[in-house]
Amino acid sequence: TIYSRGDNNIAAAGLGGAGNSADIQQLGDTNFAVVDVLGDDNDFYIDQSGSANELLITSDVAVNGNSVNVEQSGDINLVDVLIAGNANTLDISQSGSGNWVAGDNGYFALGGNDGLVSITQNGNDNLVLGSQSGQGNLMSVTQNGDFNTAIVVQN
């Protein structure tokens, strides 16, 4: 568990192996977290509250059965996801103004079969850009507020 309170918080977690869990909680302004998924059947929970919340989730190798839960609240919430592997679950909840789920290249990407993506955004300037590739995948996007955009591709 990583808990940081105050301004300019930086946290990183990487789980190798199987059946592990990691919690990151950041409270304050300018929160940045990096999660590197290296194993299977791991659980991640990330909670960021304040202005300027940013999260990067990556997997350098194909990983399976991981669950990532993200809660961001405040101004300027950003999640960037690049994960490959089967049966991974991603649940993102953002509230505040300036909510975005997109990557450095302008989109997020999840590859593999039987994955689940759920994104809920409440607030202004909402944007979801990304893709989910493979078979048997499910994606749900809910946006409430102004300037909503959702462009997703499943193949």
Number of strands: 15
Q: C-alpha Rg, in Å? A: 14 Å
In percent, how helical is the residue content?
under 10%
- Mean pLDDT across all residues, rounded? 92
Task: Compute the number of helices.
Answer: 0
Structural class: mainly beta
Give the overall shape, derived from the CA principal axes.
flat
Strand content: over 45%
Low-pLDDT ranges: none
Order of helix and strand elements from N to C terminus: EEEEEEEEEEEEEEE
Q: What is the end-to-end distance?
A: 36 Å
Largest sheet: 8 strands, parallel
Explain this structure.
This protein has 155 residues and is an all-beta fold. 0% of the residues lie in helices and 60% in strands. It has no helices and 15 strands. Strands 2, 4, 6, 8, 10, 11, 13 and 15 form an 8-stranded parallel beta sheet that branches. A 7-stranded parallel beta sheet has the order 1-3-5-7-9-12-14, with no helix packed on it. The mean pLDDT is 92.
Characterize this entry briefly.
With about 160 residues, the chain is an all-beta fold.
List keywords for this structure.
155 residues; mainly beta; 0% helix
Topology:
Layout: E1 2-5, E2 9-15, E3 21-27, E4 31-37, E5 43-49, E6 53-58, E7 67-73, E8 77-84, E9 89-95, E10 99-101, E11 108-111, E12 116-122, E13 127-133, E14 138-144, E15 150-154
Parallel strand pairs: 1-3, 2-4, 3-5, 4-6, 5-7, 6-8, 7-9, 8-10, 8-11, 9-12, 10-13, 11-13, 12-14, 13-15
